[in-house]
Specification:
alpha/beta; Aspartate Aminotransferase, domain 1; 4-stranded antiparallel β-sheet; globular
Amino acid sequence: MPSQNKYPVKIYVCEPDIGDLEVKHVTDAIKKTEISSIAPPVHRLESAFAEKFGMKHAVAVNSGGSALFLALKALGIGPGDEVIVPDFTMIATAAAVSHCGATPVFVDSSEHSFNIDPAKIEEKITPKTKMIMPVHIYGEPCDMDAIMAIAKKHNLLVVEDAAEAHGAKYKDKLVGTFGHANCFSFYANKIMTTGEGGMIVTNDDELAERLRHMRGYDFDDEKHFWHKTIAWNLRMSALGAALGLAQLKRLDELIEKRRANAKYYMEGLADVPGIRFFPEPPDTFCVFWMFGILVSRMDELMDFLGRNGIETRTFFIPMHAQPVYDQQGDFKWSDHYGANGLYLPSSSQLSDKDKDLVIAKIKEFYGASG
């Protein structure tokens, strides 16, 4: 991804939190020449991740996008099918549907959440609809009771995109454990990382076996170099898995650091005019992968912060507005969020000193005191 920075950066929007434990795990793997996709660290990460999330199976792949695509493909999504996707999401969610030859059908957010609005889903369901893909945007859990009820009513599959929500909970149940298959990203800016990487979790034995075959050219179990289907190479390297094992051991710590960031920002920016952010909804445990705010004069604010060495990012551009989709419809809230939202530096290891500078500069921009 090309750099978006016009100015020298002192505080990055997100950096991986890598310590001695991660260095030890990766170094040990190298010393043991455990570097391929079939080396022990991959299997250890899969087992540990499945246990952490209370699922029977975890299948490691080379990215969150690959996880989404492979899950949909293994569940039979293909040409002629439609899949309900939030309009306000990152392109990987919709692209997974398109790569299967199916059609993503976009649904707006609500006034009170960046997530898909369950009240707007049923009007988009047609006889071609096969699946709902809820995305837990920026680490806030979707309304899974409502989504699962709609899926059950219309006999639809559910695949959660939990790329940004490792450890988030909805009514004390971990997100990424509700659907038929559920996907996580381990990109470098995620709460836990393998550099590049992803994971699919499921309780379906047959689905897990299909996923394992499909991620690695579908080698036959009994006759090597014998292939009955055309598959892909979407495997995770053992070096990434070794890094991920260390990060998984620290996951609770990394989550609490993100939550502490959010609390600090919410308290520090509470009285600044022109800023809006969403508090943690009832019955949820948010992990605040990124701390997002809605602002007036967004471009000016980002430029001002940039000139002061503070990197920010705009929110996602809604899917219906993307050149590759260009769907018509009423997307009032996703349009609003895309046009007025940005996220602040949110690294797990972000210091209070850094957050104080961010807050102070935002207050300076808006002329607020405090």
